[in-house]
Specification:
Length: 160
C-alpha cells in the first residue's frame, strides 16, 4: 500500500504535473498567435458566451474557453499578476461579453486577445486601451493623454 502511494505521488509530481504546465506553455506556440503584440485593431470584435476552463498560468497569459453558440474561442487575457491586481473574479459558467482582436490560429482554433471582458452586472475588466496597448505595461498614460506626450520638449526621433 505504501509503495503504491509513493508511486502515485511520483507519477503525479514528475510526469503528470509537468505535462500539464508544459501544455499551458505550448498553447501559444501551437496556436501561432503573437502575444501580446499580435493585437490587430482591424479584427476587433465582440463575442458573447459562457466562460469555461479558466487557466491562470504562471507562464504566459491567463486564458479560458468561451463557448458562443456553435463556436468556441480561446481567450487570452493578461499575465496572472495583472488579474490579481484587478481582483479578477469570474466563476466558471458565467455569461460574459469579450471585446478583442479575433484570429484563426495555425492549429485551426479561434482566438481572441481580449481588450476587455464585460459582465451582465456592468462590471468591466480592461486589459488593453482602445489602441490595443496592454495596460499592464504601464502605457495607460499614453492611452489617455497622447497630446501630452507629443508636446514634451526634447522628445525627438526615437524617443517616447
Amino acid at each position: 500500500m505504501k509503495k503504491h502511494l509513493i508511486f502515485l505521488v511520483f507519477l503525479f509530481s514528475f510526469l503528470i504535473l509537468p505535462a500539464v504546465s508544459m501544455a499551458e506553455d505550448d498553447l501559444l506556440k501551437k496556436s501561432g498567435i503573437l502575444y501580446p503584440e499580435g493585437y490587430d485593431l482591424n479584427t476587433v470584435t465582440e463575442v458573447k458566451g459562457i466562460l469555461k476552463n479558466l487557466v491562470l498560468s504562471e507562464k504566459g497569459p491567463a486564458h479560458f474557453t468561451l463557448l458562443s453558440g456553435l463556436d468556441s474561442y480561446v481567450i487570452f487575457m493578461s499575465p496572472r499578476w495583472y488579474l490579481e491586481d484587478l481582483n479578477f473574479s469570474i466563476s466558471e459558467g458565467t455569461e460574459i461579453t469579450v471585446v478583442g482582436s479575433k484570429s484563426m490560429g495555425k492549429d485551426g482554433n479561434l482566438y481572441i486577445i481580449a481588450r476587455e471582458i464585460k459582465l451582465s452586472n456592468n462590471q468591466v475588466y480592461s486589459f488593453r486601451g482602445k489602441s490595443g496597448m496592454p495596460l499592464w505595461r504601464g502605457n495607460l498614460q499614453r492611452e489617455r493623454f497622447p497630446e501630452m506626450l507629443r508636446s514634451r520638449g526634447g522628445a525627438g526621433k526615437g524617443r517616447r
